[in-house]
TrEMBL record:
<dbReference type="Pfam" id="PF00106">
    <property type="entry name" value="adh_short"/>
</dbReference>
<dbReference type="InterPro" id="IPR057326">
    <property type="entry name" value="KR_dom"/>
</dbReference>
<dbReference type="InterPro" id="IPR036291">
    <property type="entry name" value="NAD(P)-bd_dom_sf"/>
</dbReference>
<comment type="similarity">
    <text>Belongs to the short-chain dehydrogenases/reductases (SDR) family.</text>
</comment>
<protein>
    <submittedName>
        <fullName>SDR family NAD(P)-dependent oxidoreductase</fullName>
    </submittedName>
</protein>
<dbReference type="InterPro" id="IPR002347">
    <property type="entry name" value="SDR_fam"/>
</dbReference>
<keyword id="KW-0560">Oxidoreductase</keyword>
<feature type="domain" description="Ketoreductase">
    <location>
        <begin position="6"/>
        <end position="186"/>
    </location>
</feature>
<dbReference type="InterPro" id="IPR020904">
    <property type="entry name" value="Sc_DH/Rdtase_CS"/>
</dbReference>
Length: 259
């Protein structure tokens, strides 16, 4: 992909992976615009990274997404790349029932419905561009579920499948569909998680450089590091893969009280 002609919107760009992607891409593309819910977080990022444009938007709120789309159309009509990165990660025990069903619905809204809504809004504009791209950020957990986060893993598996259909349908168009499946990465999202055996927390900046290289080389599905192991595990040891990656969960039950 030619990055130099891209203007990029990254959802959830105010911390972690999204911020690392925004900083790395801002050296390669025409412009990067980030969004998030917290105005304070966005302003702090802007103070340290004046090259980034910021816009407040809760991607799970359809009116906010409508406003975001209108602002982009008015102020950035040359936008030609969308990175669906915003996400939340919640721990839910079916036994303890530590969440309301509304909280689970909210997680689905943010992690699954929002990328679909954003694609629905931006795709018609992108179809008229000379070249455009959409990136969905899923997870290695799209391939094998971490059972303490069942809703999260289901949304990522769903988004992985949706991305494949989208790519297949649009294969003869000017819009390329990418997927980044990060492994465990050291970000505010995973702050409370220990490094599980065999799954060390990767560095967000390193992931960003793998991402930029992958985009340049048209790598449509990126499964760096442990994500590629999870993919292989699921493929060749499907029956055992779920129990294998959930072996150490008893030591992490404190996480149920953290989300
Ligand atoms: N970290 C990992 O190990 C890991 C592994 C695999 C996949 N991922 C995926 O990578 C993506 C980024 O994760 P991260 O680790 O960088 O998390 P993070 O540090 O918690 O950052 C999440 C970002 O999303 C924003 N956000 C959350 N809900 C939002 C909403 N409703 N509307 C708009 N923005 C929202 C947050 O800002 P506000 O809170 O201000 O809204 C923040 O900018 C997620 O999709 C996650 O599932 C992460």
């Amino acid at each position: 992909m030619n990055l130099s002609n891209k203007k990029v919107l990254i959802t959830g760009g105010s911390s972690g992976i999204g911020l690392a992607f925004a900083k790395a891409l801002s050296k390669e593309v025409k412009k990067v615009i980030i969004c998030g819910r917290s105005e304070e977080k966005l302003n702090n990022v802007k103070a340290e990274n004046p090259q980034l444009d910021i816009i407040r938007c809760d991607v799970s709120d359809r009116n906010d997404v409508e406003r975001l789309h209108q602002t982009m159309t008015d102020q950035h009509p040359d936008l030609n790349m969308l990175i669906n990165n915003a996400g939340v990660f919640q721990f839910y025990s079916f036994e303890k029932r530590n969440h309301t069903f509304e909280a689970l619905e909210k997680e689905i809204e943010i992690d699954f419905v929002a990328p679909m809504r954003l694609i629905d809004k931006f795709l018609p504009d992108f179809m008229s561009k000379e070249e455009a791209a959409i990136v969905n950020v899923t997870s290695g957990l799209a391939f094998v579920p971490f059972s303490m986060a069942p809703v999260y893993c289901a949304t990522k598996a769903g988004l992985h499948s949706y991305t494949e259909s989208l790519r297949e349908q649009l294969k003869n168009t000017n819009v390329s569909i990418y997927e980044m499946c990060p492994p465990l990465v050291d970000t505010p999202m995973t702050e409370k998680m220990p490094e599980a055996k065999g799954f060390k927390k990767e560095n967000a900046e390193e992931l960003a450089s793998i991402f930029v290289k992958g985009l340049r080389n048209n790598k449509l599905e990126m499964r760096p590091k442990a994500s590629s192991q999870l993919f292989t595990l699921r493929r060749f040891m499907s029956g055992k893969s779920v129990s294998m990656i959930n072996k150490g969960n008893a030591d992490m039950e404190y996480l149920y009280n953290e989300s």
